[in-house]
Design brief:
With 67 residues, the chain is an alpha+beta fold. It is 18% helix and 33% strand. Strands 1-2 form a two-stranded antiparallel ribbon. The longest helix has 12 residues. The chain is flat and about 35 Å long.
Length: 67
Amino acid sequence: MGKAPTQELGEAIFTNRPGVQGVVTLSARLPYHKVLVVFPKRLVKGRDTLRYAYTDSNGSSRTVAVP
C-alpha cells in the first residue's frame, strides 16, 4: 500500500523544517477529522510543554498540557 499522504507530509516537514515541533492536519482515515502530529525528538525536556484542546465524543471541550 505504501505511505499515506499525511505520513509523507510529516516526513517532509520533519526533514525540511527543523524548527517545527508539530503540525495539525487532516486525518488520512477520517477526512472530516484533524490529527495533531508531534515530533517528540524536537521537544526539549524542561523547556517545551505540549498543550492542546479537543472536543470529546460527548461534545465537552478538554485542554491537556504535557510537560
